[in-house]
Amino acid sequence: MRPAALIFDVFGTCVDWRTSIAREVETVLPQVNALQFADAWRAEYQPAMERIRSGNRGYVALDDLHRENLAIVAERFSVELKDPSDLAGAWERLVPWPDVVSGLNVLKRKAIIAPCSNGSIALMTRLAKFGGLPWDCILGADIARDYKPKPLVYTNCCAVLRLDPAQVMMVAAHNDDLLAAAGCGLQTAFVPRRREHGPDQRTDLQPTGNWTVVAADFMELAQAI
């Protein structure tokens, strides 16, 4: 069945967060190793969300978690930020992978396209403006008020589009994201980003599940559906 909608992981799948964040860190904090700082900042991402997923904290938008995590990492690197909010906003200025904008424009002619990201609606909207991502609407964590891979994030995306999960395809470069979506009845597409974590990446180099589609990039994905 051709999907009526495709929903996308964004950080890593659609945009190169590591290089983009490091570039801004290098400008603001030239005294630190920018890639190490970017990796350390990203490493706080899952623990911060897990406190919410586990029920130990109420829902907090990712924008605020990024600012909190930035303070943690800045202290670890022994640096002081004159304007933390400016660097925290770097997550709204991430550069898309080369195939993404052209691929999304082709996919948009075939189906509804929307992010299913842990980023807030505000963050995803500004990121789309920055990178030219042609979404039809913005879905994801803010709709569910929870974080992937909790099932409600995926099923709420389907519900607000008034589609059955089987009519919706989750697109991600992360096998665990697809496993969670498949468990909710969605179709799945794996598009690897083998340098998301740099040249020494060891995870998500290959599909680890029986996904609906495996494609080298978004243009190949558009040809496959």
UniProtKB/TrEMBL annotation:
Catalyses which reaction(s): an (S)-2-haloacid + H2O = a (2R)-2-hydroxycarboxylate + a halide anion + H(+)
Family: Belongs to the HAD-like hydrolase superfamily. S-2-haloalkanoic acid dehalogenase family.
Pfam family, one: Hydrolase
InterPro entries: 2-HAD, HAD-like_sf, HAD-SF_hydro_IA, HAD_sf, PGP-like_dom2, S-2-haloacid_dehalogenase
Keywords noted in UniProt: Hydrolase
Free-text function comment from the UniProt entry: Catalyzes the hydrolytic dehalogenation of small (S)-2-haloalkanoic acids to yield the corresponding (R)-2-hydroxyalkanoic acids.
EC number(s) stated in the UniProt entry for this protein: 3.8.1.2
Name of this protein: (S)-2-haloacid dehalogenase
Enzyme superclass (EC): hydrolase
Organism expressing this protein natively: Algicella marina
GO molecular function, one term: (S)-2-haloacid dehalogenase activity
Keyword Transmembrane: no
